[in-house]
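Continuing the series of single-chain predictions for the mutant panel. This is the parent chain; the variants come on the following pages.
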Amino acid sequence: MLPPYKWKYPSQRKEELPRGVDLSPENETEALTGWVNGLKASDLEERLARAFRSKNLDFIFQYNLFIQGRKYKNTIDFLVNVGLSRFAIEVYGEYTHESQADREADAQREAELNITLQKDGIENIIVVWHWEIPDAESAEIKVDELFL
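Parent structure:
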């Protein structure tokens, strides 16, 4: 019989949540899965993707751009095709884009990406903030405002 395997490095798993923490979604009618087109997604991204689908808009989730020598991430959240136009959409969550430094880095990243997007005939990045789409209904209203 073989001895149990001993890991070289300690586990990187996060601690378990304390007992009694309510993990139920705020709006249980949404039943979010955490996935869009087979890729892991935030609740905001999934909500927006569902709104695109409900409006029969063609989109690519996690659209990759090739930018040689670029030090930031080269992926935009959504590329949406509307008629002959293509739009880049970024969804900004509450915690990842809240500090002044984060917003300055976001502005720099957007400026760099917009140059490449324009070369590819794609409109400048449209930012959708977390407070604009707190639920499915507001996501559909936002999509109507943007594209219809």
